[in-house]
Amino acid sequence: MFASVSYVTRPRGRLSQLSGRLSPHAYSQTPMAPETVVMKFGGTSVAGADDIKRAAGRIVAAREEGKRVVAVLSARGQTTDDLVAMAQEVSGRPEPREMDMLLSVGERISCALCAMAIHDLGHHAISLTGSQAGIVTDSSHTKARIIDVRADRIREALGDDRIVLVAGFQGVSGDSRDVTTLGRGGSDTTAVAIAAALGASVCEIYTDVAGVFTADPRIVPDARKLGVVSFEEMLEMAASGAKVLQLRSVEYARNHDVRMHCRSSFDGGAGTLVVAEDETMERPLVTAVAHSTEESRVTITGLLDEPGVAGRVFGALAEANVNVDMIIQNEPVAGDRGADLSFTVGRDDQQTALDTISTLEVGDAISTDDAIGKVSIVGAGMRSHPGVAAKVFQVLGANEINIEMIATSPIKISCVIAEDRVPDAVKALHEAFELGADAVRKEEPTGVEHRPKVSP
Ligand code: ASP
Ligand code: MG
Asked: Which of 257, 239, 385 is nearest to 324 (CA)?
């Protein structure tokens, strides 16, 4: 029964157990198999030589607690941005395959350097590229998806008592065997995928912030660090612009039931746990306010009003690998006019979206607007409470902020507004829903942490 005991999935437990799980030795999977942990370090956590040494120290400390450690590293500091700029210096539209060859270098540098630092601390480490680590992806260069993790080489190295360092953000196409990258922020997904493949007890994401906050602390100084957040909420937050975790990594973690612990690499404090909803103890009405200023709106006016048109538009965009967020279309008011269709895409995809639609001949005109911003509130509790949307709109209205588009999910309300009003909107909503540190009513604790239940 226990033939592959080291890779069994860890048992599901409630939060009381979960916090224990994170302390040394608390949850080794069996007496025979040491606990496996995956530790991911972001770019700022490996930026300078001292940072690399600090990361190496943390990795070694986990190893010395008896754990088997796989560390996934990002490129140092601004390395990836610098590589992108380098490509743009030589080409207006860099070939995606070559772009991936170039971008994958940053993470390899981090891993090799960190392995050296670990050796100096008296431990054995081995660095691996994504391809060597068995990260197999599809062939969509610069935003590839992981389709398989063939982790035998990682397992072998762990079996040989090595610390394994894996270059994040990259893999190899199963079809073409070319190097691929996973999209900006993709090292988070590498870490989660490896954690899932190894049945690791937790995927720790070390970053330059203390965890996931109720809003961006740069905009809202009294934003609070969340102790726990569900996968569903975190997915909505990541999709709404919270940058702390890559969207796809949360999706992967939810699908494979990998707990994530997002924490600071600069201090020892606990961060934010991202876990399944049935493991969270409460359902706050509103958990956080997220925002994004990295999207553009594309509008097609005079769109043909006949069956199949939307399918053609979005089919072509999907074909071009453009991710669409909000979509709004209205039937034409007068019979002889076409419909208006607006949708939002990442600014990086704006040009591709325009080029793609121009070839379709489905409407009179296409325009874009990139002075838009998006503000969203997310909370699992709003699923069962009416009135949250009304309150959001009232708060924005009271602050003279015009709402240009609205989209909702059962646990999210997003509004597109003018980009320059985003900070005001975030502050106003954070205050109106009493999410700040001052709003925590300590006399009424209900769990790990009390979050106010606000009546709309
Ligand atoms: N280095 C890549 C980026 O800057 C991937 C990552 O950091 O996760 O997007
Ligand atoms: Mg990141």
From this structure: 239
Its pTM stands at 0.85
User: How is domain 282-456 classified at the CATH fold level?
Assistant: VC0802-like (3.30.2130)
Region 36-208: CATH code: 3.40.1160.10
Residue in 142, 184, 247, 249 to alter for ligand 1 test, most ligand atoms within 8 A of Cβ: 184
What pLDDT, in 10s, does the model give residues 332-387? 777 677 899 999 999 989 999 999 999 998 999 999 999 999 999 999 989 888 89
Q: Is the CB of 29 under 6 A from ligand 1?
A: no
DSSP assignment string, 237-277: HHHTT--SS-HHHHHHHHHHT--EEEEESSS----EEEE-G
Residue of minimum CA distance from atom 4 in ligand 1: 80
For residue 185, the ligand closest to its alpha carbon is 1
Determine which residue's CA is closest to atom 8 belonging to ligand 1.
185
Q: Would the CB of 75 count as within 6 Å of ligand 1? A: yes
Instruction: Decide if pLDDT at 440 tops 80.
Output: no
pLDDT (mean) for 138-146: 95
159: Cβ–Cβ under 8 A, 6 or more apart, which residues? none
240-299 pLDDT tens trace: 999 899 999 999 999 999 999 999 998 888 999 999 988 876 667 899 999 999 999 999
**Span from the CA of 118 to the centroid of ligand 2 (angstroms):** 23
Per domain, the residue ranges of the chain are 36-208, 282-456
Tokens coding 13? 């437990």
Atom 5 of ligand 1, nearest CA residue: 185
- 43 close to ligand 1 (CB < 6 Angstrom): yes
Question: Which ligand has the nearest atom to the CA of 105?
Answer: 1
9 three-class SS: coil
At residue 297, the 3 state secondary structure works out as strand
* Whether the CB of 169 sits within 6 Å of ligand 1: yes
